[in-house]
Amino acid sequence: MNRSAHLFLAMFWAIVVLGHPLYGHQKKEPVEVQISELKPTPVGVNITLRDVNSKKSIHMLIGFSESESIMQAMRGRQRGRPMTHDLMKNFLDRNDWKVDRVLIRDLVRGTFRANLILVRNDETQVFDARPSDAMAIGLRYGARIFVNEEVFEQQEEYEETPEEGKPSEPESLRL
Fold first, then answer.
1. H or E segment at 21?
2. Where are the domains of the chain?
3. For 4-54, what is each residue's pLDDT tens digit?
4. Which of 52, 65, 99, 170 is at 20 to 30 A from 30, Cα to Cα?
5. DSSP characters over 43-77
6. What pLDDT was estimated at residue 78?
7. Beta carbons within 8 Å of 7's beta carbon, 6+ residues apart
8. Which of 67-81, 108-122, 130-144 has the lowest mean pLDDT?
């Protein structure tokens, strides 16, 4: 074997051996979820998103108006006057945008963060959004909802955090 062949084989095995541990650390594909429950509480509505292929779920607290908007979209109903999410859909429609999907991307200090992914022709735009708003708009398009695998783990970790380590809610808001 000549010198260049030895060098090629050495580089090949270095990539295989050194690159192999990195292979297992690639980001996992998001999992599709469905809304399985909307449960009113004194301070908002607890929404449960369940993995369509397993029993894993996440729970988040959303506002009453957002939950009403989600329910209207799930039932395919519209009010006489457009709600905020209907208005957004009308705006998107007029500009030829469609919601491709909703992605709940992470959980930071007890707050879920989402992306609303829009498409038009071959163009894609990603917008940061509150999960409840993203779902309310996305459901009006029949868009699927996804959750990054890490969010399930983040929620478990957050739920295990002692109360003193969690952000506190103000007793009242000053205007």
1. helix 3-23
2. 31-161
3. 665 565 555 545 445 444 444 456 899 999 999 999 999 999 999 999 999
4. 65
5. TEEEEEEEETTSS-EEEEEE-HHHHHHHHHHHHT-
6. 78
7. none
8. 67-81
- In terms of C-beta density within 10 A (0-12 exposed, 13-18 middle, 19 or more buried), how is residue 151 classed? buried
Residue with tokens 């594909």: 29
- Amino acid occupying residue 67: S
| Distance (Å, whole) CA 34 – CA 58 | 10
- Strand ranges, E, within 54-155: 57-62, 98-108, 111-120, 123-129, 144-147
pLDDT of 131: 98
d(CA 49, CA 26): 24
